[in-house]
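name: query_chain
kind: protein
chains: 1
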Amino acid sequence: MLYTNVERKRKHLTNFNVCVFCNDNLEIMLHVLCDCMMEQSVWREAVVKKDMLNVFCAMSYEVWLDLIFIMDVNYVLQR
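structure:
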């Protein structure tokens, strides 16, 4: 499991629940994967094919995990 700051704070592992990149929103998985403009640039340039970014951000977290871990990873990732 990937812990966001919201989860880490809930488990008393940190005192902060905001995004470390934008310092503006709660760091939940949806924010990390799609909503944070600072982190989105990482996804856009390093991980997700440029033509897949809108599709990627429209997916639920569960569908995203299925694509990454079950289906053809090369379809989603630029590697």
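note: The chain is about 55% helix and 0% strand.
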